[in-house]
Amino acid sequence: MGTQIGLRCRCGEVRGVVTNAAPTAVNRVVCYCDDCQAFMHRVGRADLLDVHGGTDIVQVAPASLSFVQGHDKIAGLRLTPKGLYRWHTTCCNSPVGNSLTPAVPFVGIAVQAFDGGASRVDEVFGKPTGAILGKYAIGEAPKGSTGFNPSLILRVIGKVLGWRLRGRTWPHPFFKRETNAPIYPLTVLSQGERDALRPLCGPRPTAPAGPRVAPFTIPP
User: Fold this and answer.
1) 3-state secondary structure string, the chain?
2) 64, 207, 71: which is closest to 138 by C-alpha?
3) Are 121 and 10 in contact (CB under 8 A)?
4) This protein's superkingdom (predicted)?
5) What are 5-18's pLDDT values in tens digits?
6) Which of 8, 10, 87, 143 sits most deeply, having the most CB atoms within 10 A of its CB?
């Protein structure tokens, strides 16, 4: 089984585990895109963004992530009808994974979701291998986050292709194998709702974070 590392939401109602955890088994990158920023603002968790609006993400094979508690408190959000699936908890609005459809097998997990904090994540997965989409960073773009990074792109493609070829798509923590349909409730933002988040995001936010955007929850 190798190394395992737990993850949990802020209040502890939702818990999971990543198996076979190692630097060679994952891809870790800091993303500064405005969609990642918008999602964090939408769920009221902009506190998880770094000073430039970045999200530190560990990408793992879907089959390596499983939830062991709180399945009834997980929901999905898409910023647009074809956007990334962004999974979060309804108990405390904690992000627990980003994904595309099972055809592109990966799950990106914000480092704050892992037990033990940043030091434990560094120990298990190593430091980030790069940064992307720095053109959306707030303030001066961090070094290496803009432009084309071929080694990083090739690493991501290699990981995802390898996971697919080795059958690491299933079991998927967020989709049903029989139908490829989402396991959990899903909400898609309207164009107006998505546009309302843009003033909060980089590269030049024009609205303050906080009370202008209420935390998002799935109604009972």
Assistant:
1) CCCCEEEECCCCCCEEEECCCCHHHCEEEEECCHHHHHHHHHCCCHHHCCCCCCEEEEEECHHHEEEEECHHHEEEEECCCCCCEEEEECCCCCEEEEECCCCCCCEEEEHHHECCHHHHHHHHHCCCCEEECHHHCCCCCCCCCCCCCHHHHHHHHHHHHHHHHCCCCCCCCCECCCCCCECCCEEECCHHHHHHHHHHCCCCCCCCCCCCCCCCCCCC
2) 207
3) no
4) Bacteria
5) 999 999 999 999 99
6) 87
Return the HEC string of 83-136: CCEEEEECCCCCEEEEECCCCCCCEEEEHHHECCHHHHHHHHHCCCCEEECHHH
Neighbours of 169 (CB within 10 A): 20
Q: Kindly report, residue by residue over 56-92, the tens digit of the pLDDT.
A: 999 999 999 999 999 999 999 999 999 999 999 999 9
pTM equals: 0.93
Longest dimension (CA), the chain: 48
Instruction: Give the tokens for residue 217.
Output: 């929850």
Q: What is the number of alpha carbons within 13 Å of residue 77 lying toward its C-beta?
A: 28
34: exposed, middle or buried (Cβ count in 10 Å: 0-12, 13-18, 19+): buried
Read off the amino acid at residue 115.
D
* Dihedral Cα 125, 131, 133, 137, nearest 10 deg: 110
Q: 4: which 2 tokens? A: 């395992």
Q: How far is CA 52 from the centre of its chain?
A: 17
pLDDT confidence of residue 179: 98
Residue the block writes with tokens 């920023």 = 37
